[in-house]
Amino acid sequence: MRAVIQRVLGASVSVDGQVISSIGKGLLVLVGIDRYDEPPDRALILKKILSAKLFDDQDGGSWKRSVKDIDGEVLCVSQFTLFANFKGAKPDFHESMSTIPGSAYYHAFLDEIRSAYIPERIKDGRFGAMMQVSLTNDASYIFISTSSSLSILDESTSS
């Protein structure tokens, strides 16, 4: 799995000109699913999303609070292009999980992240839809987490 995590003051997703989801202060997360992803990948990514210290504290100390600490919201948007490769000038999406298992995997991820936080604070787009995503960045902080590299980090720090 791969997550592009952006700190936002607000974000929304529209389909066919209609806003289907929106959040205030929190995180906009573009979620990509690799064709080899397994349930442990979901657990690693959702832990990173909810526990990463991306917000300042009350005293202005940088990188002190998580989205949970600030009672923020999370807008998850499925993004199969995060695993695209280029063959010449054309993108190739064979590393992304295919539609039917990808949809099931993504919805399981949403269920798990809602269970790990306050369900009403987790919003999402529409899997497989042509979505328009609008956001107001809270500074230009963008972070990328990939579950395979997180697995390596977790193994190396646990011994």
From TrEMBL:
EC top class named in words: hydrolase
Tree of life domain: Eukaryota
Enzyme Commission number: 3.1.1.96
Protein name: D-aminoacyl-tRNA deacylase
Keywords, in A-Z order: Cytoplasm, Hydrolase, RNA-binding, tRNA-binding
SUPFAM superfamilies the record matches: DTD-like (SSF69500)
Annotated GO CC locations: cytoplasm
GO molecular function: D-tyrosyl-tRNA(Tyr) deacylase activity; Gly-tRNA(Ala) deacylase activity; tRNA binding
Pfam families: Tyr_Deacylase
Family statement drawn from the similarity comment of this UniProt entry: Belongs to the DTD family.
Chief place of localization: cytoplasm
Keyword Nucleotide-binding appears in the UniProt entry: no
Organism: Naematelia encephala
